[in-house]
Protein 1
Amino acid sequence: MIILLGPPGGGKGTQAKILSQQMNRPYFPAGDTLKEYIKHRPDLNKIVQNGGLLESDEINGYLLKTALDLGEGVIFDGFPRTLKQCEFLCNNINTSLLEAVIILNVSKEEVERRISNRFICNICKTSYEENTYCCASPNIKREDDLVKEAVENRWGGFRKNIHYLINIFIEHNIKVLIVNGEGDKDAVTDHIIEKIGSKVNGKTII
């Protein structure tokens, strides 16, 4: 298993998808999975739309089970994000199967620029830096990208929690790799592959 973490708009989803394709591994988008789970729960949905985080055992258990059900070597996009989620993960899996945690380092200024320019496909959820078409439908803005307070809350939550997460991973002897997440996506992918090496647990990266 590999975990990709980073600030909102940091590119973790894009990089997780690329690694999933190159390594022929299942991809788990925690954010999209959570939004689907809570879309009929207005109380929880409001928290997420305001940039808050959900971390009850119910939510964490659902996310982890959904990810593990995808198969071996799953690549996590954005989970865990909080101290409680990280402790839940480490207490409910064999941590020796966690090959690496990749943290994308992106400045707040770059995050704000990316989010202001970000559009997504409402069908396949692919991100774009322009308002074009994908899957035969026009791209849209994410609801939580439109609320400045939500963006600030998500940024602040990431900066607050990431140091705690790093400490927990290190305590469990899990490899933590900090990667420069700025620049074009191919360059970032190259940095990730250089960091983790040509193989991770016998899985060759093409």
Note: The helical segments are 12-23, 30-38, 42-49, 57-68, 83-92, 108-117, 148-171, 185-196.
Protein 2
Amino acid sequence: MGASYNKVALMGNVVRDPETRYTQSGKAVTKFALAINNPKSKEATFIDIIAWNRLGERCSTYLKKGFGTFVEGRLVIRSYEDKSGTTRKAVEVVINDFQMLSEGRYAKPAAPSTNGRSKNGSSYHAEEPADSEEDLLPFE
């Protein structure tokens, strides 16, 4: 089998305040959505974002509805069964990094410092790889 590569980088506005839940094993999983505006039309694309563990808790603490945010991660497409028994697909980006750009509009990110965070402390990286898809909780 050939090599593969799965990396997504998105910049948009947080649609709603992040929601954090915990798995049975105590791992935090945070979900929120980004609105990505199309500059050539008045349409927006809404993308579900998932963040695990401490990164997810940081998203929940620092991100709020309307904040401009940059995220990096990987695309995940999974199937699940809803409460009525219908099989559905979820398209999500599981992130391993995020950076707050502003409170409600885009702004130039701060220059990185030597410790891996921006000078204003707004860049966050996952401490460990993202969990497996089987641990994902559907947010219905």
Note: Confidence is low (pLDDT under 50) at residues 105-121, 127-140.
